[in-house]
Each structure stands twice: as structure tokens, then as C-alpha cells.
Write a structure and sequence with these properties.
The protein is α/β, with parallel strands linked by helices and 295 residues long. It has a single domain, classed as Aldolase class I (TIM Barrel). The chain contains nine helices and eleven strands. Strand 4, helix 2 and strand 5 form a beta-alpha-beta unit. The longest helix has 14 residues. It binds phosphoenolpyruvate and manganese (II) ion. Manganese (II) ion (MN) binds next to loops.
Length: 295
């Protein structure tokens, strides 16, 4: 990343570094702290984003959101538009799901993280989302990244199933280059030959990304593991490795979840899980920040 950005001897501008806005510089110190809807993430502030894989019903969503508020998570997640591998799988409730997320936000005060899969839905999703999620399958959907950049809404970009860390950073750069500074990166497991887990969680991605960028880095242990019993150890490993947060799936009744049931944590046990993850985060010097109320 040493390419000059100043004009060259001929007067012609040399190429810019491929992710010069995302790139870490000495003045970034412990990293950038983003403040999104009164919640802080990065630069020492550890944030937990939790909720179901998908919005199924109002009751399932609101009951989960109430538990998440009570145990102190910072953001509530839930998909209304789902990027499913099979076209015959449940695709999400769409606008009805967004309406349910709005009710969850109004009742609990939790900011919403929800996925955008299609540029045509950007306005509808931006109405409700405090953070627009870009799924792994869309990490290199450049028109989508540009629209999110233009929307000005914060975004969480997941690493593609077979994307390098530099490719993830260049995806972030598409959003930053539109003047939108609120970008969170997410390691969620990559494709390898190993079939024991759904994906292979690349823990090294955390320190490597933090070396290359000032942006917050979170880990999704749920989609990496594919198995509930691995979610706690992977979360603790991520937190201890210096992740700025986690994004994790939880459901009141995982056995009957519409999607990703085997990996969703029981919502009733989420508080005990979270305390262990936060203890691991403290080992790396990261602690949850209090909610900041505007003066
Ligand atoms: C999700 O978070 O619900 C999801 C679909 O994740 P990913 O894009 O990482 O597969
Ligand atoms: Mn899921």
C-alpha cells in the first residue's frame, strides 16, 4: 500500500492506493470508533449484534428483541430479504418483515441491522435500517455498494465466501468513496476443503484486517460454525483476538426456526453466553460502550 497519491513527475496523477480511505494510518491509533444510533463500535468499544436469522412473525421477532435489550446487546439483527442458496427456500417476508423490525425498534430502542439484497429495495430498507447488511454473496455487488454509499446509512459488509481480505477492503472502499464513513467489516467464514463446519472461520482475518484498516472488524460465528455448540468458542476466540464485536443468530425456539435453526442460540440463554464473550473481549482491551444519549 505504498503507491503515491500525489502527482508524479510528469504531472499526471499516479493511481490511488486501492483502498486508501479504508487504509490504516498511524494517526488512527486503536482504530476508528463509529457511533451509530447512539451505539459505539470500534476503537475499544465492543458491540454485539444479535437476533434471528430471519424475521418470521411479529411474536418471534419482538420476543427475541426484548430479551436482547434486557441482556444488553447493542444492535438487533434480522433479515427481511434473505439471500438463499436455493430459489425454493424461504426468501424472507420483505416489506412485512421491515414493518416488524420497525415495531421491534420502536418498542425496544435497539438499532436495526438488516440485509439489503437488491438495489431496488434500498429506500425501503434504509427507512428502517440503522445498519444495512451486505451479505457474503453480495460483497462484490458494486452497484449495491455504491447505492449504500449514497444512502448515507451505515453498513456492515460480510466477507465473500471466497474473497480475500484485500477484496473485502476494496468492497468497503466502494462505500467510503461515496462519502459514507460508517462501514463495519465482518469475517463470517470462508470456503475450504473442511466439511466439519459450515465454513472455516478465519480468525487470523481479525488481526490482519486490523493491521490494514482503521474500520471496525466484527465476526459472525453463527454462519461460520453452522452448529450451535461451536458458537460460544468461536465467539470467544474472535473477541480475544481483538474483534470489535460479533454478529450472532438467536431464536426463541431454534428447533422450529424457518432457517438456520441448527446454529441459532436459544434466546433464553443469551445473557450467559454474552457475559462470557464480553469477558474474552476484555482480554483484548475491548469493552461495551454505554449508550450515548445526545445532549
Ligand atoms: C445472514 O447474516 O443472515 C447471512 C445470510 O449471512 P451470510 O451473508 O454471511 O451468509
Ligand atoms: Mn442465517
Amino acid at each position: 500500500m505504498s503507491i503515491e497519491t500525489t502527482p508524479g513527475g510528469s504531472g499526471a496523477a499516479l493511481p490511488k492506493a486501492p483502498y486508501e480511505l479504508a487504509q490504516r494510518r498511524p494517526e488512527h491509533g486503536a482504530g476508528t470508533t463509529l457511533e451509530i444510533a447512539g451505539r459505539r463500535i470500534g476503537g475499544g468499544a465492543f458491540a454485539t449484534i444479535a437476533g434471528p436469522c430471519t424475521v418470521e412473525t411479529e411474536d418471534q421477532t419482538l420476543s427475541t428483541a426484548r430479551i436482547m435489550r434486557d441482556v444488553g446487546v447493542q444492535f438487533f439483527r434480522g433479515g427481511a430479504y434473505k439471500p438463499r442458496s436455493s430459489p425454493y427456500s424461504f426468501q424472507g417476508l420483505g416489506q412485512e418483515g421491515l414493518d416488524i423490525l420497525r415495531r421491534a425498534k420502536d418498542e425496544t430502542g435497539l438499532p436495526i441491522v438488516t440485509e439489503l439484497t437488491d438495489v431496488r429495495d434500498v429506500e425501503a430498507v434504509a427507512e428502517v435500517a440503522d445498519v444495512i447488511q451486505v451479505g457474503a454473496r453480495n460483497m462484490q455487488n458494486y452497484p449495491l455498494l455504491i447505492e449504500i454509499g449514497r444512502s448515507g446509512v451505515a453498513t456492515l459488509i460480510k466477507r465473500g465466501l471466497a474473497a480475500s481480505l484485500d477484496e473485502l477492503l476494496m468492497a468497503a472502499e466502494y462505500v467510503l468513496a461515496q462519502g459514507n464513513p460508517n462501514v463495519v467489516l465482518c469475517e463470517r467464514g470462508i470456503r475450504t476443503f473442511e466439511t466439519s463446519t459450515r465454513f472455516t472461520l478465519d480468525i487470523a482475518a481479525v488481526p490482519v484486517l486490523k493491521e490494514r484498516t482503521h474500520l471496525p472488524v466484527v465476526v459472525d460465528p453463527s454462519h461460520a460454525a453452522g452448529r450451535r455448540d461451536l458458537v460460544l468458542p468461536l465467539s470467544m476466540a474472535a473477541a480475544a483476538a481483538g474483534a470489535d464485536g460479533i454478529i450472532v443468530e438467536t431464536h426463541p425456539d431454534p428447533a422450529n426456526a424457518v432457517c438456520d435453526g441448527p446454529q441459532q442460540l436459544h434466546a433464553s440463554g443469551f445473557g450467559a453466553y454474552l457475559r462470557q464473550v464480553e469477558a474474552a473481549a476484555a482480554l483484548a482491551g475491548n469493552v461495551p460502550a454505554p449508550v450515548s444519549v445526545p445532549a
